[in-house]
Amino acid sequence: MLIGPQNSTLVVNHVRSRISQAATAAGRDPATVTLVAVTKAQTAETIRAAATAGVTDFGENYLQEALAKMERLAELPLRWHFIGGIQSNKTRIIAERFDWVHSIDRLSVARRLSEQRPFHAPPLNVCIQVELVPEPNKGGVSPSEVEQLAAAVAPLPRVCLRGLMCVPPPQANAAAERAVFARLRILLEELNARGHKLDTLSMGMSADFESAIAEGATVVRIGTALFGHR
């Protein structure tokens, strides 16, 4: 069952129930896990249906597509998360229009976002994307580069470094999924041991979010389980 005009609440509640069950099984408060609905290729009307069902956070990969939806839904109190790759010439509009950016993997981009964030807006929440499993044409810094990048991003005045993000490839089973997500959790714990105060692990999608929650995910990015395959 997927989100539509007549069943959005039922679908959202089903996904939230799965999140709650996974958190409870891990001994965690379900309220510590934020659902970000990934709406790449979805219409503004579909997003409105999800919002009517109580979803407040939406993730977009492509800037121009996201901006069109933002205009259509401007009256709704939504939080917008940019989760795709960032081109340097697109940083100004991202800094102006989004609440979160999950895909920082270059200091130059973080600096531009900080410089271009409007002063009337709160600092832009950002996560560093980590490439835990090397894949061609995927964004993210290697685990060995995370500490250096975090140390450079954290002092920037108009962004707030909140945590780490990953998009690992599919794994063979739940144990393998958990092993990958555990690596991101450990990286965050190591950064905090060095003086950072990070509180966000953005990891887990429709196929593996229960494993991510078991390893400490605070943000899960769900598309297919809500909207079906694009």
Here the CATH topology equals TIM Barrel
Please state the average pLDDT score.
96
CATH level-1 class:
Alpha Beta
Structural class: alpha/beta
Order of helices and strands: HEHEHEHEHEHEHEHEH
What's the β-strand tally?
A: 8
The domain tally reads 1
Proportion of strand residues: 15-25%
Tell me the strand order in the biggest sheet: 7-6-5-4-3-2-1-8
Distance between the amino and carboxyl termini: 14 Å
Q: Name the CATH superfamily classification.
A: Alanine racemase
* Rg on CA atoms, Å: 17 Å
Brief synopsis:
With 230 residues, the chain is α/β, with parallel strands linked by helices. The protein has helices at 8-25, 44-52, 63-72, 91-97, 107-116, 146-153, 174-193, 209-214, 224-227, and strands at residues 34-38, 57-60, 79-82, 100-104, 124-129, 159-165, 200-202, 219-222.
Structure notes:
- Strand 3, helix 4 and strand 4 form a beta-alpha-beta unit.
- The chain starts with 7 loop residues before the first helix and ends with a helix.
- The protein is an alpha/beta fold and 230 residues long.
- It is 40% helix and 17% strand.
- The protein has nine helices and eight strands.
- The relative contact order is 0.15.
- Helix 4 (91-97) crosses helix 5 (107-116).
- The chain has an eight-stranded parallel sheet.
- It has helices at 8-25, 44-52, 63-72, 91-97, 107-116, 146-153, 174-193, 209-214, 224-227; strands at 34-38, 57-60, 79-82, 100-104, 124-129, 159-165, 200-202, 219-222.
